[in-house]
Design a protein that fits this description.
alpha/beta; 11 helices; Rossmann fold; about 300 residues
Length: about 300
């Protein structure tokens, strides 16, 4: 599919997720090949941005997104804001091909990473999800697994071997802002950490496989204010190292952590769509659309 062809997609539901290749894992990724060693000692290249082009999405016959296009710039935090039910989390899951895991889900359009559409049949799903990681709303470490093994588990799941696993675990925990708190108890169960620490452990696990993009689906919604502040500090520290896209219902959080923002909205008659997007300061202080001003100022939603 070419960029221009996205504008000519039919309005009805296209091929299902299975037909889009959601289960295509028969060809082994190079990163999963026997003897592969991750080059973690090699400095990463230029940061990668992510581009969504005319994304529409369905659950069965129900259309939940309507031609959403958004540029998520390299090395920035892009916040997705909007009322519940407007398609923000669905859009986020489309960005790393998790949408197709839902039975009956389908989509149209393109998601482009480093010039390639991640839904192209030539793209391996496992490699897409390695390069575009996800941190969920509720912390989900493996509770009986040690802190160390929780971080290292990302490598095993991705089929990656590391020349120095301990150094990688330490590096990932440092990047997630957790190393100083857990360095002397790495063999303790991850489930014994506080909620905020568990969320940062999940961030460290995601970072261990060196993704280009990190998606966060309301990562602080289940956390207390102190833990929320620490996760926000971690996001700020990571910003120059990785491209981040975060869904949040907290307008103050969106203003604090993001450089760019996209306001999603859905009505009884229209599926989720972007009303306005741009620099966060502009979106909060001088939005173009009055609906954006009403939302960010708490007059609805």
């Amino acid at each position: 599919m070419t960029p221009d062809s996205a504008d000519m997609l039919p309005e009805g539901p296209p091929a299902t997720a299975d037909q889009l290749g959601g289960g295509h894992t028969a060809v082994m990724d190079p990163v999963g090949s026997p003897g592969y060693t991750a080059p973690f000692d090699v400095p990463s290249g230029p940061l990668a941005g992510l581009s969504a082009r005319s994304i529409s999405a369905w659950f069965g016959d129900h259309k939940v997104l309507e031609r959403v296009s958004l540029e998520m710039e390299p090395g920035t935090v892009t916040a997705l804001i909007g009322p519940s039910g407007c398609g923000k989390s669905t859009f986020l899951r489309i960005l790393n091909r998790m949408h197709e895991l839902v039975r009956g889900a389908s989509l149209a359009g393109q998601v482009v990473l480093d010039g390639a559409d991640i839904y192209d049949p030539s793209q391996r799903v496992t490699e897409v999800r390695r390069r575009i990681g996800m941190v969920f709303q509720k912390p989900n470490p493996f509770p009986a697994m040690s802190i160390y093994d929780n971080v290292a588990s990302g490598l095993k799941l991705a089929g990656i071997k590391s020349a120095d696993k301990s150094a990688l675990v330490e590096s990932s925990l440092r990047r997630a802002g957790l190393w100083n708190e857990v360095s002397k108890r790495l063999r303790m169960p991850g489930g014994g950490l506080s909620g905020g620490q568990q969320q940062r452990l999940c961030i460290a696990r995601a970072l261990a496989v060196r993704p280009d993009v990190l998606l966060m689906d309301e990562p602080c919604s289940a956390l207390d204010p102190t833990s929320t502040r620490r996760v926000e500090e971690t996001i700020a520290e990571l910003r120059d190292q990785i491209t981040i896209v975060i869904v949040t219902h907290n307008m103050q959080q969106a203003a604090r952590v993001s450089q760019n923002c996209a306001f999603f909205l859905a009505t009884d008659k229209t599926p989720g769509h972007i009303v306005e997007s741009g620099a966060t300061d502009q979106m909060f202080n001088s939005p173009v659309d009055p609906r954006t001003a009403d939302y960010v100022n708490g007059r609805f939603g």
